[in-house]
Structures are given as structure tokens and as C-alpha cells.
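Quality-control log, excerpt.
Job 1 of 2 completed; input and output follow.
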Amino acid sequence: NNNNNNNNNNNDDNDIPRPLAGIILNISSKAGKVGLANSAFYVASKFALEGLTAAWAAEYAPLGIDVNSISPGMVNTVSFPKLPGRKGVRTAESIEEAMLFLLGQSMALSSSRRTGHYLHVDEYDLAVSRSLPPEQALKPINEPNFADSLDNDSS
């Protein structure tokens, strides 16, 4: 019966930090955050992936499964080769540090774990190059509630 709560958690149990049971890391794109001319179908698929990531993060958090997405930028691969010398193109190996950072966020102590977040590798690299904490490049997928921002406005 699909109406049953299959995870056997009541609302009180959802507030208890759970041990990490798994990690889902979706490979997204900056196209999941901005509109790009002449790329409507690709953009739509990446926006959908961001929504799926946010929904799964909310659904699976009580089960101890963290769900995040990473945008590697333009990666030169055999399947999708880029023109030599094109600005902003990176190798598949160049996203390793950012990917390991994001996976490490899930493997941290349960009180500091992150789920429902998005990391663009170019922004991660920029933070690291400026000696900023890489966490500054990590953004929640769900946008802040407008009404909450009004309540926090001191003017």
C-alpha cells in the first residue's frame, strides 16, 4: 500500500540525527540555474534534476541519505569533446577535489552534514583560490522563503 509510511518514522523521529546510510550525488549543470538561449530542452532537464535533488533531499534525509548536486562546468570528454583552447574547459580530473569536498560534507558529523545543496566547481575553485572556506561555494537548492526574509529585515 503506497499510503503507508514505509520508513516507519513518526514526526518525532525525523528530528533525531541519523547515521549516514548513503549519498546520492547528481551531476547537474549551471544550466539548471539559468536560462540559456537555444538550449531549452537541456536547460529544462537540468532544472528538473535540481528539483528532483531537492525533493529527494527532503524525502531521504530522515533515512540518513544525503542528496546533493554538482555542476562540473564544461568538461572535455570523449563523449562530448570541446574545441581545443576554449576558455573555461576543464578536464574530468579537475573536478575531483570539488567532488570529494561535496562527498566529504555528507560524511561529516551528522550535525554538520549537508543535503539539498548545489556546488558549481568553478565557484568552488574560486573560493579555494581566494583562501575562503569552500563551504561558501555550497548553496541550498531551495531558495529562501520571501516572508522569512521580510521578518529578518531590520529596516
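Job 2 of 2 completed; input and output follow.
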Amino acid sequence: PTSITLKNAYKMRKGSAAYVAWEEATKDRIGRYTQELIEETSGEKDVDVVVTIEEVVQSGEQQGSGRRRLGERVLQEVEGPSNPLRLSFRTTLEFYSKESKWDGSDLIAAGFVEPSQQTEYISELQKKEQGSFGTVKSMVMSVNGR
């Protein structure tokens, strides 16, 4: 399983603009960096990579959840939730390659390894759905526990 933890983000309703933005940004990034890693490693160019995300489970706060005093609620809307949003999901990669020794975990994580890549990913989320991801400042990703 793959998991992404976003600091200062709320749970998303499946099919909502935020959920669709997260899914698109995540699939696009995994696919793009998988293509780059395949090209760097094997020299194969323009490999068509299909990324599927399934069985998404979220843990974190619902927006507007819980009882708060008015000042706390306003602060939460500006800063985001105090608990991180953790998205756990199954990722499937499909592509044709002459090589057969690919590590799926490395391919999935390739676009999230460096802090600059994580910052770019957060920016992509914010461009797609500022209202839901505008307060996100950091993230963590793990694939199969790594």
C-alpha cells in the first residue's frame, strides 16, 4: 500500500473537487516520474504508463467537525486542521518494457523523494484546488512501509 500524509488538510468526499484534484495530481506525478525513471534506467523513451489508484482510505479531520469556540473555528479555517490527513491507497502501474526487473515501490515513490519534489507536489495540489489545499505546508509519502 501507498500512503501520503498532508499536514493541514481535511478529509475529502469521494468525487468532490478536492478529491478529484488530489487523485489527478497524484496519478500524473507518479506516471510522469515513472516514465523518467524508466528512460534513465533502460533508455526506453515515451513509455506509456497507466496509473490506477484504488481502495483509498482517509484518516484525519472533517472540515467543520467538532465543537469549537468561535475564535478557534476561525483560526482553524485560516491555518487548516491540527491533525494531518493520511491517505492510504493501492497503486497499480501498467506499462510495457523490455526490462523485467522493476521495483514498483521505487517507481511509485520517484516523484516524491526530494523535498523540492514534495514542495512541487503541494504546489500542484494548491493550483488545482486552493480552497482545500491552500493550508498544506508539508507532506510525507511511504510505499510498502518504506
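Post-run check on job 2. DSSP finds five helices and four strands in the chain.
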